[in-house]
Amino acid sequence: MLKVIVFAPLLGAAILGLFGNKMSERLIGLIACSSVGVSAIAAFVAFSKLLGVQPDSGGVRRISETLFTWISVGTFRADFGFVLDPLSGVMILFVTGVGFLIHMFATGYMSHDPGFWRFFAYMNLFMFMMLTLVLGDNFLMMFVGWEGVGLCSYLLIGYFFTLPSAGDAAKKAFVVNRIGDFGIALAMMLIFYKFGTISFIDKEGLVGVFTKAATMPVEALTFSSLWAGGLTTIAILLFIGATGKSAQIPLFVWLPDAMAGPTPVSALIHAATMVTAGVYMIVRSNAIYAKAPMALTIVAIVGALTAIFAATIGLSQWDIKKVLAYSTVSQLGYMFLACGAGAFTAGFFHVVTHAFFKALLFLGSGSVIHSMHHEQNMAHMGGLKKYLKITFATMGVGTLAISGFPLLSGFFSKDEILWKVKSSPILPSNLGLILWLIGLVTAAITAIYMTRMMVITFFGEERFRNNHGSHDGHHGDDHHDDHHSHGHGGDPHESPLVMTVPLMVLAVLSVVGGFVGIPEALAEKIVPHSLHDYTHSFYKFLDPILTPIAASPGNVTGALAQDHHAELMSTVYSTIVALLAIAIGFFLFRDKPLMTMPRLLEQKYYIDEIYDAFIVNPLKSISTTVLWKVVDVGIIDGIVNGLAKFVGFTSRLTREFQSGFTRSYAVFIFVGAVTVLGYFVGYLVFNALR
Amino acid sequence: MVPLSWYLILSAILFTIGAVGVFLKRNVITIFMCIELMLNAVNLTLVAFSSFYKQVYGQLFVFIVMTVAAAEAGVGLALVISVFRNRETLDVDKSNILKL
Amino acid sequence: MEKVFFIIIASLSVAAALSVVAQRNTLYSAFSLIGLFGCLAVAYITLQAHLIAAIQVIVYAGAIMVLFVFVIMLLNIREEELRVDRNRLLIFSVPLGGLLFGLIYFGLKNFKIDEIKGAPVGTSEAIGQGLFSKYLLPFEVTSILILLAIVGSVVLARREKDGDIEDIEDDEQVVKVSMAEKSKVEETKE
User: CB-based contact (8 Å) between C101 and chain A?
Assistant: First the structure.
């Protein structure tokens, strides 16, 4: 069953990649969507099977499938196997589900693109890699998927490869991700060194990494533990990988540029699935993190800083997709913040809800861009709600969800994260309180910039008219009958059904997705008692995979954890903040939609420039002056040319012997004969003298 | 009775003359003849030893050497004719490339 | 008495050998070589190797040297030009030859064996016994060698057909051949 989930998209990718260029768009779309659809159905079936499985001694339900032993060297063994447990179960549900919706959307969005088949071949390949990443039953399998999604991300960001910006963005994403991948590779080696295995689970003849990690002592909360080579080092190396894939400080710079890819790619890869792989990996490795409080602290701090940092940049962007990109970075920061606070399930819950509303927002933006004839600058939009009713409504739901509007999915997950951070027993002293404050501010900024995006795009003056009229001869002509009026002016029109249906489905999911994870304190107040099992089912379902974490010494916030009243108060705070921020955003930008933003924010804190100045350019100059001109030309070429010269020199010497003159050959034979003779005579003489 | 070493030294002298002749002469036929000379010098040694040791095998060996010399002369002279036909020369220094 | 006879034979053969190398005319070299072979045949007789002596005269001096003389006459070789100064191998070869002789001389000059009593061994009976019993295989192999030599000589010395003349890349050769043909044609005209 797990095989089907993983390999169905691969089959689709193979068919499309090999024969797609001869197929019609209809057939390509059908194959692409159905391969993911099969995968999604199989995922649901597998998930329902999982619910019926008897939990093992640790209380974890698990279905594992080993296809074959992939590598076996000495004690090292890596199986080609898949494992379905609550964590990967939830993950494949939304990966295949959201993936299917996005594929469907893309058949509309990408229509009439010359590389249609190539696009869907890559997309299906991505699904295969992502599912390998999620279902792989050891670190190496996960790493295969990890690299595979990186590759697909590269291919899809650079999909419009004729544009230099797309190519550059693809390269940037690839290179930055490689930095993180070094962390993963090193962590894997260290894991094998430390545990003698890389398997996630206990199997016949194999003991899982996490089983062993759970029995180890908690490491000290000191900086020296970071490079001591213990669990903390492993955890930090894994986190370095996660910062690359999940776009955290300092490796987040690739994600905003990755928006050069088609919008469905941004929705699937750079919002819903691939970028959350880092969070997935950390939740998966929670047994290791549980023993490494220093690593958790760093994860939390980095997450919080990324969250607020990216949110402030998001406040000032004009490209609709860039806003969403920074929003994604910011939300990913939230997830890491939760993980760092020890609330792995809360973080993972946010992964799920975020997948719904961020995919929705991206697809909505795609719908807007589609109807605006690939215009992405919000300054040239405005007043679109009249023309794009469905898009407006669904994106509105998404915005409210991400802003934390009460009772929508984002509200529950974000609220849970904030509360878990505030009451974290794991973070040292009262760091939890500080991070909670940062989180709260971030929540406010998030609400503001999302509202700003909505207002600038859908409300106010119809700025696109002037823009189009200035360089389009068909000014004022309406093309309602022309379904695909690319290259023509006129009123924007709503996207076809194949694009709006996914929007509507995702909007519904964004609304109801949170109801499986209502925080307990809140649930007591607003949900009938009989339904409590359902409203908290997400946490109940996932809790068995967690390893208990010991409280940090000197922690002052942990005492709050059982205080339901304080939790409710926290909820109230965040609700007020969210509502206020939405209101501020709405009224502020309704009146002045084109308000200039601080230059520092518009320039993204000059991060790219700083990286260029301190990392990229020194690297380039070192590469040019030292590596190229000295090492390559001087040493490597020198060795090669020197060898050639040496051979040439000796050849010139020995060539003299190969003169072609028969008599000189005779002389050589003669010299040899004399030498041998001389040896024997000398021997005789020597013996005679003795 | 002539001592054995006299025969040996005569053989050495003849062999050396033959060897030096191979180096000095450019005419391929003369070179051939010098090689025959060297073979005969060796034959003399073999016959001398055979005779002094009263063993017949040395002379059997000479018999075979003569056969080989005859074969060599046959093939060698055929080569000489073939080369001369193409180059109009018997100078070995002028046939120093591996083609006709 | 024997020693004096040996010395005469030895000096004659050395003189003949030097003559082989020193003569500029190839034909004279060949005659000198025949003389040398005769001297060696005499030396074999002093060693009581009568059969070998006879073969030496018949096969070597007779058959092989006749072949040489045939070829020399056939090719109509001019005298070698005097090119001693350009013979750079001379400076190597004479010292090398001296060295070789020195080594052989020092290796063999004191070589002595105790005199072994017995009948002379060089009779045709003894040689035939050895050749057709114990050394039959080498004898047969030698015959194969000669067969090969016959085939090889025929292949090498065979004159190429006129049709193969294009294969020869040497322009001069082609020109010469065509000239010869032309003159032939002219001759027939006349």
Answer: no
Q: How confident is the model at residue C127 (pLDDT cuts 50, 70, 90)?
A: confident
pLDDT more than 70, % of chain A: 96
Is A427 among the domain residues?
A: yes
- Same domain, residue pair A582 and A659: no
Cβ separation B95–A666 shorter than 8 A: no
A443 and A590 in a common domain: yes
**CB–CB of C33 and B75 under 8 A?**
no
User: Can you give the residue range of the structural domain that contains B12?
Assistant: 4-89
Chain C: partners with 3+ C-beta pairs within 8 Å:
A, B
* Res. C170: pLDDT tops 60: no
The number of C-beta contacts closer than 8 angstroms across A and B is 23
Q: How many H-runs (helices) and E-runs (strands) does chain A carry?
A: 29, 2
Dist CA A43 CA A94 (whole Å)? 9
Verify that A342 and A467 share a domain, yes or no. yes
Give the best residue of B4, B16, B86 to mutate against chain C (max C CB count within 10 A). B16
In which element (H, E) is residue A635 found? none
ipTM: 0.89
* Closest Cβ opposite residue A661 in set B31, B96, B98: B96
Chain A partners within 8 Å of C94 (Cβ) = none
State yes or no: pLDDT of A350 exceeds 90: yes
For chain B, the maximum distance between any two Cα atoms, rounded to a whole number of angstroms, is 55
CATH number for the domain that contains residue B82: 1.10.287.3510
Q: Cβ–Cβ of C96/A670 closer than 8 Å?
A: yes
More confident residue, A132 or C89: A132
User: Is A334 a domain residue?
Assistant: yes
Tokens of C109: 């000059």
Q: Do C89 and A667 touch (CB under 8 A)?
A: yes
- Residue predicted with more confidence, A321 or A535: A321
Q: Are C65 and C119 in contact (CB under 8 A)?
A: no
pLDDT at B86 over 50: yes
For chain A, give the mean pLDDT: 87
Q: Residue A539 is encoded by which pair of tokens?
A: 């946490």
pLDDT above 60 (res A247): yes
Q: Determine how many CB atoms are found less than 10 A away from the CB of residue A601.
A: 14
Same domain flag for A145 and A201: yes
Whether A563 and A622 map to the same domain: the answer is no
Last residue in a domain, options A602, A629, A659: A602
User: How far apart (Å, rounded) are the C-alpha atoms in residues A607 and A83?
Assistant: 40
Q: Using CA atoms, how far apart are residues A585 and A591, in angstroms rounded to an integer?
A: 10
Q: Are residues A150 and A120 in the same domain?
A: yes
Note whether C92 contacts A667, CB cutoff 8 Å. Answer: yes
| pLDDT at residue B40 tops 90 | yes
Per-residue confidence (pLDDT) for residue A474, from 0 to 100: 38
CA distance B23 to chain A (A): 6
Domain assignment of residue B99, yes or no = no
B42 contact C CB<8A:
no
Domain coverage including residue A638: 615-689
Asked whether residue A610 is domain-assigned, the answer is no
* Residue ending a domain, choose from A602, A634, A651: A602
Cis amide bond preceding C120, omega within 30:
no
Q: Are A357 and A470 in contact (CB under 8 A)?
A: no
For A446-465, what is each residue's pLDDT tens digit? Answer: 999 999 999 988 888 888 77
Across the interface, whether the CB atoms of C96 and B56 are under 8 A apart is answered: no
Give a yes or no: residue A148 inside a domain.
Answer: yes
Query: How far apart are the C-alpha atoms of A559 and A433, rounded to whole Å?
Result: 12
pLDDT at residue A103 is higher than 70: yes
CB pairs < 8 Å spanning B and C: 241
B3 interfacial to chain C (CB closer than 8 Å): yes
Average pLDDT value for residue range C106-119: 76
pLDDT tens across C158-169, in order? 776 654 444 444
Question: Beta-carbon neighbour count of residue A650 at 10 Å?
Answer: 10
Q: Which of B22, B31, B96 sits opposite A659 (nearest CB)?
A: B96
How many domains are contained in chain B? Answer: 1
